[in-house]
Design goal:
By secondary structure, the chain is an alpha/beta fold. The chain is built from six helices and five strands; from the N terminus they run βαβαβαβαβαα. The protein starts with a strand and ends with a helix. The protein binds D-ribose (RB5). D-ribose (RB5) binds next to α3.
Length: 145
């Protein structure tokens, strides 16, 4: 799967670990949209470039990280067609796929430890959308219901 990933300065270290983790699966192609250092940046710039690329078909899923995940989540969910899910555990990660068909996973590097984050990523990557009544509800979010 082609996965887009981006973060701000609050999360570059966790992003690097997630990239390394995902790269262990040869079926994954990871496209890193930055940042890769501690210099202060504005998270909306990175949320927006990832969401535009995802909507343009440059990847199938996206992962965004900032300090709390809150800013990235707010910025990503302004885009029609982006379903960003800020997850703090594997339960919400699984349900964000099964029920919400989340196409962007959002993580907070200052609120979620590395081991938990990697478990969230694995669960999120491996879980399928259940469709049916959940698609009807997503259509209502997109004003198609
Ligand atoms: C940056 O200091 C911080 O505000 C950002 O990473 C994120 O937590 C915003 O929601």
């Amino acid at each position: 799967m082609r996965i887009l990933i981006a973060c701000d300065h609050g999360a570059f270290d966790l992003k690097r670990k997630i990239v390394e983790h995902l790269a262990q699966n040869p079926e994954n192609e990871i496209i890193n949209l930055g940042v890769d250092g501690a210099e202060s940046v504005d998270y909306p710039d990175y949320a927006q470039s990832l969401c535009r690329a995802l909507l343009a078909g440059e990847g199938e899923r996206g992962i965004l990280l900032c300090g709390t995940g809150l800013g990235m989540s707010m910025a990503a969910n302004r885009f029609n067609g982006i379903r960003g899910a800020l997850c703090h555990d594997e339960y919400t990660a699984r349900l964000s796929r099964q029920h919400n068909n989340a196409n962007v996973l959002v993580l907070g590097a200052r609120s979620t430890g590395e081991a938990v984050a990697l478990g969230i990523v694995d669960t999120w990557m491996q879980t399928d959308f259940e469709g049916a009544r959940h698609q009807r509800r997503l259509d209502k979010i997109e004003n198609k219901g």
